[in-house]
Amino acid sequence: MPKLSYQVIIEMTNGGADYCFECVGLATLVQGRGWGKTIVLGLDKPDAQLNLSSFEVLQSQKTLTGSFFGGLKPKSDVPILVKRYLDKELELDKFVTHEVNFEDINKAFDLLIQGKSLHCVIWMDK
Description:
Layout: H1 5-13, E1 19-22, E2 37-40, H2 54-60, E3 63-66, H3 74-86, E4 96-101, H4 105-113, E5 119-123
Parallel strand pairs: 1-2, 2-3, 4-5
């Protein structure tokens, strides 16, 4: 029987991690024994449920926090970021290392896997 994700973490860290970041969007990765703070970044299916024992939360003093867009508030923060970009205060262009057409999307994944790409723009209309 394969080990559950939290079992692997407990073995790797000799007991558990103080901070965990769930980035892939699987609610099941948040469940399990342990302590410390877990920050959920990945987005699972809309109907995905977390199942935590209240005893486990109290006993382990586990903290669970979600962070959607890093706490960005789209309605108020995006216009500010756009203005800062247009005013050249926020230099995002230098972070784009590659651009590919949609039909070359696999090249973008290859560059990412090889560690050669920071951010790749995929053009849909070229």
